[in-house]
Write a structure and sequence with these properties.
- By secondary structure, this protein is of the alpha+beta class.
- A 7-stranded antiparallel beta sheet has the order 4-3-2-1-7-6-5, with no helix packed on it.
- α5 packs across α6.
Length: 304
């Protein structure tokens, strides 16, 4: 008898979950535990750094090894009398939101491994020693750290396949479709977490270039566009190089600093967007010019 397609996929889910739990065990019980021991004893790396590298991997490991894997194993043993996994995955889905923290922290964590490997030879030696062990399968710590980031998309693909292969009359259809929807929402949630992290990182870089002026630094701001611009002086018919940052709530009119120590620009003027007017000009001498006027003052500017 040929195994039904949906059972093959359910078995693949179980097998990949088993391998995944082994990988989480390696990250949490070996890398994290041994590096933490080294941090406490040898003081070669601060405990805080080790915690930042591994984020909430312990919670993720506990959840998969103590709950999800045993539930799946039990279900697959009973497959002949209860051929379904949709309800088990529905129980799993809400807990996957804890991946948001791990994923958001991932780039920073990988960067910390690189920085501290250069800074602390004992740290690098310990990692190299663990990587030589059979359990690491010739792969680096960074490679293993990527596994949780890739796990939710993997669930989504397997479950999509499972739902497609289910016969229309299957008792698992409703549960499996609902489970797929929940996993899809979690995947969206972690993508949103990454996008938000990137937005804040980019915003912070812009604030540093502006010299971290107190009244400008606000995490809710959104940078829409930035770029060089020419300021037209009508008095002597000349132009000078300036720079604009357009946020959702304000336009910053800046002057590039000649000596770029610290900040790259000096903010000369800010115009609030809600009272700002922009008008194109037809000037034969200066093409691509426009007027920007706010409560404070009006600027005549020329784009490239």
């Amino acid at each position: 008898m040929q195994e039904p397609e949906e059972k093959k996929i359910a078995l693949e889910l179980l097998e990949t979950e088993q391998a995944y739990v082994n990988r989480l065990h390696l990250l949490d019980q070996i890398f994290y535990t041994e590096l933490m021991k080294e941090a406490k004893n040898g003081k070669t790396i601060p405990e805080e750094v080790v915690k930042m590298i591994f984020s909430n991997i312990s919670s993720i490991y506990q959840f998969h090894s103590k709950f999800f894997l045993p539930e799946l194993q039990k279900r697959m043993e009973d497959w002949s009398c209860n051929p379904r996994i949709g309800d088990v995955i529905q129980k799993l889905a809400p807990f996957l939101k804890m991946y948001g923290e791990y994923i958001k922290n991932f780039d920073k964590a990988v960067e910390l491994v690189t920085v501290w490997s250069e800074k602390s030879p004992p740290f690098q030696e310990l990692i190299a020693d663990i990587q030589k062990r059979k359990v690491c399968a010739n792969l680096t710590l960074q490679h293993h750290m990527l596994e949780p980031v890739q796990r939710i998309p993997r669930y989504e693909l397997l479950l999509k396949d499972y739902v497609q292969k289910l016969p229309p009359e299957s008792p698992d259809r409703d549960d499996a479709e609902k489970a797929l929807e929940m996993i899809f929402m979690v995947a969206k949630h972690s993508n949103a977490a990454i996008a938000e992290m990137e937005r804040l990182q980019n915003l912070w870089v812009v604030y540093q270039r502006l010299g971290l002026e107190d009244d400008i630094v606000d995490p809710s701001n959104e940078l829409i566009k930035e770029g060089p611009i020419q300021k037209i002086s009508t008095r002597n018919n000349s132009t000078s190089e300036k720079y604009l940052f357009l946020f959702n709530n304000m336009l910053l009119y800046c002057v590039p600093r000649v000596i770029q120590v610290g900040a790259e620009f000096q903010v000369h003027l800010r115009i609030n967007v809600d009272s700002m007017k922009v008008r194109e000009l037809n000037d034969a001498q200066f093409p691509n010019t426009f007027l920007v006027s706010g409560k404070q003052r009006t600027l005549e500017l020329q784009a490239r």
